[in-house]
């Protein structure tokens, strides 16, 4: 189950709402994250209190999750760390509530809308072909390291303006931060990332390039330029979000293809449906968990929540909700409607979702065109998993003839 619980149960928490769950290291998710979450949902109420990680609420019920995510006046984004850390880096616009959040979001949206990223399609295709070609003739690979951590990370680094020759260093920092087992370790990685960003932003302030960092430096924001502190804050969010999320989506999706040869065959026969497959796999294998902090005393699902308490929204449960997605554990291209929160919900819906979909569609199309039927390599260690705010696979060994 992980470390022993660290907090007493608050008096206002009903005993029947207490469930031990450590979203970083829980035994339920160590073998398979999503199977573990389904098991948790079968034994826990839709809203419960866990004494792990300083004590906090966990929301599994889709309706309650949507209430939390669309009510920022009550459930604030100002604190996104569990356990909460007062010295955690601010991530603009993710760490802000209205009205400040919308001002910065409008600025960022101008560079992430479909027409603004259309020019990246050729670069996405280029890097996808490049990294698929690297493993094509090897008969197998450790997919996370060789492919999933390469394609989206390289595309995003190029787009934002991070130096491509630092790929290994940056990926290591991201993985280290998300794998941190203590607030102190997480803070150490955060400070290292901030140091890298300070160097990068300073270099762009001295010399502009054709990248997002340069555009942010020159942007007009409410009649002024962004401050260095604001650039650092935005950069920190870009660093975390851009260098890890699509890697995880790609890994979960490819693991499904390796496990289910019939679905793999179906998609090979209909490559024009790769965009639908990407959406369906995101629904089935949603991987972020979204923390919020209670801004004022409130009630949710008939339970009292107190100001200052932390709430963790397990948004994977929306895609696995049978009332929204019948036969939710099945991955089906003929699903009439796909309901999920893979890109968040409400005002904080992921800005990079259009780029993510572009990358995933291109990957499945090129991978299935170049790699023969593949499967899990049973001779290698099983896939490791990572809990936390962004859940993922640490490895995925594949083989093909």
TrEMBL record:
Keywords: Heme, Iron, Metal-binding, Monooxygenase, Oxidoreductase
GO molecular function: heme binding; iron ion binding; monooxygenase activity; oxidoreductase activity, acting on paired donors, with incorporation or reduction of molecular oxygen
Signal peptide annotation: none
Family annotation (Pfam families): p450 (PF00067)
PROSITE patterns for the chain: CYTOCHROME_P450
UniProt family annotation: Belongs to the cytochrome P450 family.
Name of the protein this chain belongs to: Cytochrome P450
Organism: Henriciella mobilis
